[in-house]
Specification:
With 224 residues, the protein is mostly helical. The chain contains 7 helices and 2 strands. Strands 1-2 form a two-stranded antiparallel ribbon. A hairpin with a 4-residue loop joins strand 1 and strand 2.
């Protein structure tokens, strides 16, 4: 279950966090387009298949997202869906629409865009700063003028034009790398807990699923 508190793997965390922004943009674009088109044309029945496609797409995308969380963050999220009832398609669609998990899946993908933007900004800002500082003793000589000027070429409060001058900055970069590693894991762990809260079963749903399987097992035993 994704509620475990162990740290997610570092490499998987980096890949996961960097993927969230493009996936969030794609999800937000598709969701808003289908929702607007479906609701806008539902009165003439054209929107009904669009909304049906939205529901099926959301549930399918949520399954893929649970798999992505498990593959990259090593956090397993249980499926929250009850088996669909046998019989008419209308009963099956009614079950999908009444299932709270369908709407929680939808909420997750709407949240993924702003959350992915924040995560992408923090990760890229911290890591670019960390690596730039740590590598300064190597590349400062290839900068314009053969030196690094802080904070800019126009305002030169500090000048780094030798390896000795660059070493304190490199030490600061190593510290920032440690902070970046901790931040990356913290962001990934927080996202995994959010994914579990929205994509996993609630306590009430878990109890309902347990009752369903108990009843199904009893029926099977009676039928046998």
């Amino acid at each position: 279950m994704a509620s475990e508190r162990r740290d997610p793997p570092f490499g998987g965390s980096v890949v996961f966090l960097l993927m969230n922004l493009p996936l969030g943009v794609a999800a937000f674009t598709v969701l808003t387009s289908l929702t607007a088109a479906g609701l806008g044309t539902v009165v003439v029945w054209v929107g009904v298949p669009l909304l049906a496609l939205l529901v099926l797409g959301i549930r399918g995308a949520a399954r893929m997202e649970r798999a992505r969380v498990y593959a990259l963050l090593d956090r397993y999220i249980d499926l929250p869906y009850l088996p669909l009832p046998a019989g008419k398609q209308s009963l099956r669609w009614k079950a999908r629409l009444k299932d709270l998990s369908t709407w929680r899946d939808l909420l997750y993908f709407f949240v993924l865009f702003p959350l992915g933007l924040i995560e992408f900004t923090l990760v890229t800002a911290f890591w670019s700063t960390s690596l730039a500082l740590a590598g300064l003793p190597v590349y400062f000589r290839w900068l314009p003028g053969g030196a690094y000027y802080f904070p800019s070429d126009d305002v030169r409060w500090l000048t780094v034009d030798s390896t000795v001058d660059a070493l304190p900055w490199a030490a600061l970069g190593v510290l920032f790398i440690a902070l970046s590693v901790a931040l990356t894991k913290a962001l990934a762990g927080t996202h995994a807990r959010l994914a579990n809260a929205l994509l996993g079963p609630t306590v009430a749903q878990r109890r309902r699923m347990e009752r369903w399987w108990e009843e199904a097992e009893e029926k099977h035993l009676v039928a046998g």
